Amino acid sequence: MPIDKIFKDDANEEKGERARMASFIGAMAVADLVKSTLGPKGMDKILQSTGRGHSVTVTNDGATILKSLHIDNPAAKVLVDISKVQDDEVGDGTTSVVVLAGELLREAEKLVTSKIHPMTIIAGYRMAAECAREALLKRVIDNKENAEKFRSDLMKIAMTTLCSKILSQDKEHFAEMAVDAVFRLKGSTNLEAIQIIKKPGGSLRDSFLDEGFILDKKIGIGQPKRIENAKILVANTAMDTDKVKIYGARVRVDSMSKVAEIEGAEKEKMKDKVKKILAHGINCFVNRQLIYNFPEELFADAGVLAIEHADFEGIERLGLVTGGEIASTFDNPESVKLGHCKLIEEIMIGEDKLIHFSGVAMGQACSIVLRGASHHVLDEAERSLHDALCVLSQTVNDSRVLLGGGWPEMVMAKEVDELARKTAGKKSHAIEAFSRALVAIPTTIADNAGLDSAELVAQLRAEHHNEGCNAGIDVISGAVGDMEERGIYEAFKVKQAVLLSATEAAEMILRVDEIITCAPRRREDRM
Amino acid sequence: MALAFDEFGRPFIILREQDQKTRLRGIDAQKANIAAGKAVARILRSSLGPKGMDKMLQGPDGDVTITNDGATILEQMDVDNQIAKLMVELSRSQDYEIGDGTTGVVVMAGALLEQAERQLDRGIHPIRVAEGYEMASRVAVEHLERISQKFEFDNDNYEPLVQTCMTTLSSKIVNRCKRSLAEIAVKAVLAVADLERKDVNLDLIKIEGKVGGNLEDTELIYGILVDKDMSHPQMPKQIEDAHIAILTCPFEPPKPKTKHKVDIDTVEKFETLRKQEQQYFDEMVQKCKDVGATLVICQWGFDDEANHLLMHRNLPAVRWVGGVELELIAIATGGRIVPRFQELTAEKLGKAGMVREKSFGTTKERMLYIEHCANSKAVTIFIRGGNKMMIEETKRSIHDALCVARNLIRNKSIVYGGGAAEIACSLAVDAAADKYPGVEQYAIRAFAEALDSVPMALAENSGLQPIETLSAVKSQQLKENIPFYGIDCNDVGTNDMREQNVFETLIGKQQQILLATQVVKMILKIDDVISNSEY
């Protein structure tokens, strides 16, 4: 007797081969989607949102592309997830990780059709991943001791990262900027302290790193536009009407004159507050919240620069650079730490006025001003720069670097191949497949650059047969070349994360032999 | 449909709106129910054992779960059939009671149902089958008791515990680093265990996960991990020898619960209110400071002014800490949760050797570590992993391992895994069957056959020849009369489970057999299914 159904109405299940097929196809489709963006000659994608205004994003960043996709296939979601994690954790390599996972699954599919059990494939992949990691570890370069060399390593990494992005024209300029910014962080990975300000106009080359701090705000009317040796009080307090916070309090009066009195008292209170603030001996006051006209006027009278409505991050950063504490009460002027800077002035970038703090006490934070022809360019430039900054800040902590341009993949592939030859049993097929998947990355890079990938990869493989070879694909000249000479470096941490997460994701998808989809939650029809 | 007529030939209405309902009765009902139960078991069958496959589940909101844990699969499966729901309940109760073996119990029940179907075809009454199963399960449980072995371990020698946890973990995706995870689980359980009373309060073990890093970075923290940061960005990030005030009252002006109004009608009142308010904040902070607190952990938010005052007085504070976490902190640090500022005293402060903030990755994510607590009973397992699904799955796996370790502390008996226990029971039940006169004998024999299905599924999932392997192991057990031979899932080369160190807890196995039998009995007893047909 057939059972009609176990699941709810719209739920369905797919089993065995079909389930595996569905997840393989989904994952490979996603991988193929971002494949063409890989490498220095990768192409960009236009993303149009379905929201109002159909805003358009042009990007080359794997994580950004995948984030904006509406995906229904569960296996594809796994890939989107790993790319997101890669973005959070190391910032770069978001495309590579998806492409590698996709290639691993493509190879796995072939093995499965030739009747090798998924568990055997997983066992092989694990061995191969471990071996590949060892191979990389053997070849890492660590220049932590030598500050000069380390800096040049960082420069090279930044340039390698940037060359696949829109900034590749001015990669040296931007690499310099990124390295400087990261060095100022002094080992912290808190990228919040680097502020990126985007201003349309000018060209990308006009972007610059500012030693000080730039706040995208205007100076109040009638207040000094330039202050030397500024003492800054950074505050987070209400400067509109200072409400009585005791619960249930309300004003109830019975005559007009009383209203006037209370209004007077309120004003008096504000005046008191301003006086207290002034008692700190400051000449610049930055508040997170609004400053109403009345207190602003008072500040102007006292010759103090008052800046209102600096957002929370702005405040925090300002506190960080100037070394002041963020204050909310003003009764003890002597013990509040004030921020200091040499010069505050209003500057013009394009058509906008910004406030510039220079000569700050602590150099932890800094601002990068990006200029560019359009918003799309600026957005993409910000993403690219963010990638570079992430990679650099991670590299400062883990200073091991590798060569780039498909070199690490070839090194790993070679070791993995050797392992495959030594391993007995069906696992060796899987290990071999792993090495093929690794080689797919340089192949894709070459393909995207319009080069003869088969020829180049074969040459590369031959080169790598020699011990200690530094050969990789030089996309610019379209030939195999010495990566060390060309200065193409990548961070070890990024490569390792790509390798491990891609293997993990492939393993996860391979283990699945059944997909059960629940009925979509019904939304109330409000129409 | 059954219709009854009275003496005048008018129909009685027995079921309201009879024609809208479908009804199955008698042998058809049992067959249908058995088929549904089997269908559920079939889904889980391939997840059994160290080489079992995972299931991918897409939830109603499009979220994806990938898991191998029977209870989780069934829970999220969106089941509609009543009998299938019974199976879901079955695995859930195994999860609550034991924590592990949730897949095994369903596979077992499915096998029992399959055998029952055959007996029904022979014309044996379902109740007789049920009774036969009951007798057989008793035999099996007793036999398990007999073949079980006692484990000796204490705080220093916990190797046996680790081995057992590893057996549990080896069937999960985390088996890559099962050794370290098993050690973490065992250490965590031992840290909170009360060996005298043989009791473990698993609530004291908090499992926290954060995306990023590797599975290998997973660590055990002797203390508490809170996913919060200091309320003010400039407060110190590290406090040694902290005295912690644990508050459930906000740093905000009081909100009396009775309805009241404060009317401001004169300037003086306005002024006094203002003063009071300022004083209020001052007092709150002062009170914390007075009792000697060096860290304030609060369940509620702070007013901006209070926040600055705290910062100003050099009193670091954490806000919006959840209720459960707050309790854990209180337990770990030996402090008391204080609901009012007035009740704050020095004795009520919790103590911790080190409190520090740690940031992760490129985003601004920070966690607060509270370590070296006065009462080190509470521990946290901090899981790192490549993606969200991985972390969720690791959480479930660790939970299983924790449960196993706890069960071992409660009851030190173990049986051998890898299907060895099932095969031994099957032999015992088969031998016992001949002693029972009557129809039940057949049912008992069927039970023995059903027991074989677990090792059979194990062999099948591991890519071995199921029938061949099973019969070989069975004959080996019988010949040498040793109940340690099981299925060699990992292709190690021996099927002596003692050598492979594959153990399971005795109570877990017993519970599996008992629960599965119970549910099957229940299903067999149903002979009439009335359901609303689709509309």
Automatic annotation (TrEMBL), chain A:
This is CCT-beta. It comes from the Eukaryota. The lineage of its organism: Eukaryota, Viridiplantae, Streptophyta, Embryophyta, Tracheophyta. Belongs to the TCP-1 chaperonin family. It holds the Pfam family Cpn60_TCP1. InterPro entries: Chap_CCT_beta, Chaperone_TCP-1, Chaperonin_TCP-1_CS, Cpn60/GroEL/TCP-1, GroEL-like_apical_dom_sf, GROEL-like_equatorial_sf, TCP-1-like_intermed_sf, TCP-1_chaperonin. SUPFAM superfamilies: GroEL apical domain-like, GroEL equatorial domain-like, GroEL-intermediate domain like. One of its GO terms (molecular function) is ATP hydrolysis activity. It is found in: Cytoplasm. CDD domains: TCP1_beta. Keywords: ATP-binding, Chaperone, Cytoplasm, Nucleotide-binding. Molecular chaperone; assists the folding of proteins upon ATP hydrolysis. Known to play a role, in vitro, in the folding of actin and tubulin. One of its GO terms (cellular component) is chaperonin-containing T-complex.
From TrEMBL, chain B:
It is found in: Cytoplasm. Its main location: cytoplasm. GO terms for molecular function: ATP binding; ATP hydrolysis activity; ATP-dependent protein folding chaperone; unfolded protein binding. GO terms for cellular component: chaperonin-containing T-complex. PROSITE patterns: TCP1_1, TCP1_2, TCP1_3. Molecular chaperone; assists the folding of proteins upon ATP hydrolysis. Known to play a role, in vitro, in the folding of actin and tubulin. Heterooligomeric complex of about 850 to 900 kDa that forms two stacked rings, 12 to 16 nm in diameter. Pfam families: Cpn60_TCP1. The gene is LOC108806197. This is T-complex protein 1 subunit epsilon. InterPro entries: Chap_CCT_epsi (IPR012718), Chaperone_TCP-1 (IPR017998), Chaperonin_TCP-1_CS (IPR002194), Cpn60/GroEL/TCP-1 (IPR002423), GroEL-like_apical_dom_sf (IPR027409), GROEL-like_equatorial_sf (IPR027413), TCP-1-like_intermed_sf (IPR027410), TCP-1_chaperonin (IPR053374). Keywords: ATP-binding, Chaperone, Cytoplasm, Nucleotide-binding. Belongs to the TCP-1 chaperonin family.
